[in-house]
Description:
Strand order of the largest sheet: 4-5-6-7-26
Amino acid sequence: MKKGRRITDIPCLHEEILGVIFSRLPVKTLLRLKCSHKGYCDLISSPWFMTLHRKRFSSDPDNHCIFVQTGKINRLIRIQNPGNLIKLNEPCRTDYTVIGSINGLICLATNIASRQWICIWNPSINQYKMFPVHSDNPEKTRKCDVSMGFGYEKGCDDYKVIRVLSYKTGWPLTILEIYSTNSDSWKEVKSDSRLIKLNTCFCNVIVEGLPYWVAKDLDGSTVLASFVWSIEKFFIIPLPEEVITKSQTFVATNYHGSFALLAYSSPSKFKACIDVWEIELDISAEECDWKKKDTFHTDFGFSMHWGLTGGGIVVENAPNMPFLFNVTTKQRWEMGINPILSLSNYTESLVSIKGFRRVRNQLKRKRKASNPVRARLS
């Protein structure tokens, strides 16, 4: 039998046409192609192709995933196949906090040797970068609330991490520490007044690269706060009046690429109503306009819910197993994970940043450690 001829080049296709074809392929396939031919490697490694691939995958709901943290075994779940729990080769221990996820990068905060570290990780290409926080002096952070955010400044193609230190006394009352992956360094920005108090230790959602928090203003009213990287300031957003007066609870979410609120109210014990509020922002004019986009009715109540980029929600209906709910088709799928500590949207990408290195095979090491014979041989 003759051996099959290996095709290593397609000379009749222009590079841009080949790039459009390759942009439809998953990351694992592209990584194999890079190893098969130098021309493919140069094409797939080019910035324009990485951007094209990222935009195509992020715009297709079929490619969206959920990164779920449970505290023990963390998993990646494909929204189109919720029963398939994907194991991850994680760069650090499971006792970390997820700050946020964007463009295929997941930002984590963890503690190593009594010091806090930040980890930016791309599970798709199995690479990460670890760096310490700007200031981890206990005396400096003892009398303040600390919250972190992660995002992307599109204008300069820069991924950034922010630490917000809100002091109860002293001057200044708020210090912002910003890390830039382009410069690989932290810088400190001081604020002369305490305008808001962030409700969580990490941002609630990331939309178009900007991190958003649920916060309290000086009067104690609940507001939303978005940090704008280009001007290094917070943009304060009031809630819709109807959400304040009628909703039992709400969550901030990335709804089909736009910032939105999922506001929950329950007319009866076993039924719920979810209003979707979208916002139009004019940051330069510091103006915003809320519009009720949709209203969904369900035949169940729930204790907690998280919004997803594609418009679905994950519902925790204690004491039952959390499930994924499609608000359009009304379909439900049990996730097989309980409890859920945090949940982040994720889309695979080829995005890499300066200083990335390969994650050691943690899954292989765990299997070897569980086998005494293999552990002794190694």
